[in-house]
Every structure is written in structure tokens, then in C-alpha cells.
Automatic annotation (TrEMBL):
Belongs to the short-chain dehydrogenases/reductases (SDR) family. ERG27 subfamily. One of its GO terms (molecular function) is 3-beta-hydroxysteroid 3-dehydrogenase (NADP+) activity. Gene3D superfamilies: NAD(P)-binding Rossmann-like Domain. Pathway: Steroid biosynthesis; zymosterol biosynthesis; zymosterol from lanosterol: step 5/6. Coiled coil: none annotated. InterPro entries: Ergosterol_Biosynth_ERG27, NAD(P)-bd_dom_sf, SDR_fam. Keywords: Lipid biosynthesis, Lipid metabolism, NADP, Oxidoreductase, Steroid biosynthesis. It comes from Aspergillus coremiiformis. GO terms for biological process: ergosterol biosynthetic process. Its EC number is 1.1.1.270. This is 3beta-hydroxysteroid 3-dehydrogenase.
């Protein structure tokens, strides 16, 4: 689609993939990517291609028109930006593989992938608990709600037609929020490992949630099929995967995930040789969340939606650092991770690493006046950036904490790292199992056409 280009040409071109972009946070991430890219003096001679996914071509075309309207209304140099719609259903691994193959065949590289798409899985609210909680404990209840109701055991449709009797069932929230993205990221690893300049190594940016906590995840129920909180379980799994990805204990499984050997959907693309399967081109994995902003992920009527937005503003005025309210502000952290120079991100993590920590969960934060920034977020079992003891960064010490939060202990950190190791092992085992099944399905004519 974009033709062959020399390595020098590619240094001036940035390619970023955003999933789930037809509305809400994903759409705002695309808009903010464009705004910050075009306003950056360091990128004055570069171009940006935003590849975004929706669940259907119609939604993709509609989203493209809206993004082009945003570009025309906010930029004097719209020719430097290209929007490309793609379709994928993350609950359909055949569809994920089809998208992966198109990307590998049509693009020279990917500098970042922003894994935003997902579902909540909630079907109702416990209204008495919600009303009481908001009236008596507003900030906590609109930050870490206890009143959302989701059914247990929700699974995807069968992924294939001829091999259904061989398929392990997949939890629908798990597949949409984690596993579909996991398969996609592995499949496009050749593109990520070609990134290089201008950003540095390719980046895998996971979108998590402020609500994620390891207590919501049972490693023996990784897909959340037995829990009444499958969304929170999926986001806790996201945290564990991203925050432990550079630890020695997870290295064998992460190396397998990053591997390009035996890639099932790549033919090298553009006639290029395969990327060498070494450590010189490994991507970086980052974790972010949008704070608390108003999206359609929770099923609410319009009057209740606006009542929710009013409660969010009130929580911010009462001292919450996380109520970004508007999805454009919620896009702050993931866009910062996608576009910042590698030296900037390394510097932001340096204090944590100097004190024995590691990766940080970066959240979109707003002050009382609505000024947004990317802020380190405390994680149950990982603290601030994996540093044992009190927060070592002044801004972290001043930020309002979740009620009941305690400083990270060495024992809790060891437990978190061990959970991360087990999660990585199980995810790789599941990926390998499904790659084999999908390979078999591809040789069966009855399974053709399931992808987009």
C-alpha cells in the first residue's frame, strides 16, 4: 500500500496502530496523536500514519471521515498525516490473524501499537449500592466502583467451524481485552522490530484501568470464567504482563512472545528479509490507563451518563487526581508513551530503577483546573514503579491514594513477580496452542472467510 522505501526514508515516517478507535477513548487517542505530532518541533520534517481498527468497514469509513474533519479543523499541515482504517473483531482469532497478515504485507514497520479496544462485560448496576456509595463515599466509589454487575462464564463463539470439537473455550472479556491483543502483538512483531528511528525500539502500549488489582485475578482462572468481575480480572492480567515483561523470571516466555521465528502470518513484507531473531531489536512494553473518563463502556441511558459526568467533575474538585472526565484528556498517557523520545521515557523511569524498581504504570491525570499529565500510578503488589517501601518521587507522595493502600513490601513484590511469571507462561502456552489450531483451520476450506 505504501510502497518500498529506503531506511533513510523510513526514519522520517512514523506508523502507529490504534485498536478500537470508532468512538470514545480510541477515537480521542487518534486525535491527540495527530495534534501532538504536528505541534512537536522535533517532528517538523516527519509524517505520521495512524492505522486504526474498528469492528466493521462501515464504522471504519465513518471514523476516517470524522478524523479527517478533526485534522482539517486543527491543522495547517494536514498532508503530513494519513489515516488508514482496518477491521478486526478481537473476539475472533481468525479475524485477528487476517488483520495481522494484512499489516505485515502492507506496511514497512510499526513504531507503536496502542492496545485500546475492549469490552466491559457488565450487564447491570446494583443501584442501591451505587446510590448509597456515591452519596456517602463519592470519590472512592467513582474511582473504584463496587456496584457493577457482570455474568460469569461468558465465552466467545467458536473460532473455527471444522475444529470446534478441538477448541478450548475462550472467555469473551479475556479475549477482547487481552488475548486478542496478545495474538495481534505477537503476529506483528516483525514490524515492531523494524521500528528503530525516530522513536527508538517499537512499543507495545497496553491500556489498563485504574480499577485493576491483583486480588481480582486468579492465576488458575486466567480467563476470568469463574469470576463475577471478568473486566477487572482482565485488566489485572494486563498489569502483570506489562510490568513483569523485562524481569529475568519471565525472560524465556517473553522471548518466545517477541520471537519472529516461525511467524505464522509474515512473509517479510515489501520484499524485505526477515528480521533477525536477536535481542538488538526487541520492542519495549509499556502500561497506561486513561484515568476515569466518560465512555460508553458502561451501559447507561443519556440522563444517567451525564449524571455520571457530573459526579466525575465533583470527584476531581474533591481532590481525585484521576478524573480526566473527557476522553481527550484520558488519551494523555498512552499518546505520551507512543510519541515521546526513548530518552524521555527512560528518564521518567530512571528514579524508580535507581531504587530497585522497574516498569511503571502511567496514568492520565488531571489537576483541579483540568491540566492533564502522565502520572505514575500505584499498583497493588507493585507499588510505584516496583520500588519497595514509601514512594520515592515527590509527586507520587503528594498524590491521593486509594483507601487502604499500603507501601510495597519485599514479600509482596516477590509474589507479584511470581504471578507475572505464571501468567506469561500460561499466555505463551495458550498462544502456541491457538496458533497450531489456526494453522490447521487455514487448510480447511470450510474455515475460509471467517476473518475480515
Amino acid at each position: 500500500m505504501f510502497g518500498n522505501g529506503t531506511e533513510e526514508d523510513l526514519q522520517d515516517k512514523v506508523y502507529i496502530l490504534v485498536t478500537g478507535a470508532n468512538s470514545g477513548l480510541g477515537f480521542s487517542i487518534c486525535c491527540r496523536l495527530v495534534d501532538e505530532f504536528l505541534s512537536s518541533p522535533q517532528r517538523a520534517n516527519q509524517s505520521l500514519t495512524v492505522i486504526f481498527t474498528t469492528r466493521s468497514p462501515k464504522k471504519g469509513n465513518d471514523t476516517q471521515l470524522r478524523l479527517q474533519d478533526h485534522l482539517r479543523n486543527t491543522s495547517t499541515t494536514p498532508s503530513r498525516v494519513t489515516f488508514v482504517p482496518e477491521s478486526v473483531d478481537l473476539n475472533n482469532l481468525v479475524s485477528v490473524r487476517a488483520l495481522s497478515r494484512r499489516l505485515n504485507e502492507e506496511y514497512p514497520k510499526l513504531d507503536a501499537i496502542v492496545l485500546n479496544a475492549g469490552i466491559g462485560g457488565w450487564t447491570a448496576l446494583n443501584w442501591p449500592r451505587a446510590i448509597w456509595g456515591v452519596l456517602t463515599d463519592l470519590v472512592h466509589e467513582v474511582s473504584w466502583p463496587s456496584y457493577k454487575i457482570a455474568p460469569t462464564g461468558m465465552v466467545t463463539d467458536y473460532q473455527t467451524t471444522t475444529l470446534a470439537d478441538q477448541e478450548p473455550r475462550l472467555g469473551s472479556v479475556f479475549c477482547a481485552n487481552v488475548f486478542g491483543h496478545y495474538m495481534l502483538a505477537h503476529n506483528v512483531m516483525p514490524l515492531l522490530r523494524r521500528s528503530g528511528q525516530p522513536n527508538g525500539p517499537g512499543r507495545v502500549i497496553w491500556l489498563s484501568s485504574l480499577e485493576a488489582t491483583r486480588k481480582m485475578l486468579d492465576v488458575e482462572d486466567l480467563q476470568g470464567l469463574r469470576t463475577a468481575a471478568p473486566y477487572e480480572s482482565s485488566k489485572a492480567l494486563t498489569d502483570l504482563l506489562a510490568l513483569t515483561a523485562d524481569l529475568p523470571s519471565t525472560a524465556p516466555f517473553v522471548k518466545s512472545f517477541y520471537s519472529v521465528e516461525g511467524n505464522h502470518v509474515s512473509n517479510g513484507g515489501f520484499g524485505r528479509p526477515r528480521v533477525a531473531d536477536d535481542d538488538d531489536s526487541l520492542p519495549n512494553m509499556y502500561l497506561s490507563h486513561p484515568g476515569i473518563c466518560g465512555t460508553g463502556i458502561l451501559p447507561l441511558s443519556w440522563p444517567l451518563f451525564y449524571a455520571m459526568i457530573a459526579a466525575f467533575y465533583l470527584a476531581r474538585w474533591l481532590g481525585s487526581p484521576w478524573h480526566t472526565v473527557m476522553t481527550y484528556f484520558g488519551a494523555c498517557a498512552p499518546v505520551w508513551l507512543a510519541l515521546s523520545a526513548q530518552s524521555v521515557l527512560d528518564a521518567a523511569e530512571s528514579t524508580y530503577r535507581q531504587h530497585g524498581g522497574g516498569r511503571t504504570k502511567w496514568g492520565s491525570s488531571c489537576n483541579l483546573l483540568g491540566k492533564d499529565c502522565a502520572a505514575s500510578t500505584e499498583v497493588d503488589g507493585w507499588g510505584y514503579g516496583g520500588v519497595v517501601g514509601p514512594a520515592v518521587v515527590e509527586e507520587d507522595r503528594q498524590r491521593r491514594r486509594k483507601r487502604g493502600a499500603v507501601d510495597l513490601t519485599a514479600e509482596d513484590k516477590v509474589e507479584f513477580e511470581e504471578m507475572g511469571r505464571k501468567c506469561w507462561q500460561k499466555m505463551e502456552d495458550l498462544r502456541i496452542e491457538w496458533d497450531k489450531l489456526l494453522d490447521l483451520a487455514e487448510v480447511s476450506p470450510d474455515d475460509f472467510g471467517l476473518g475480515f
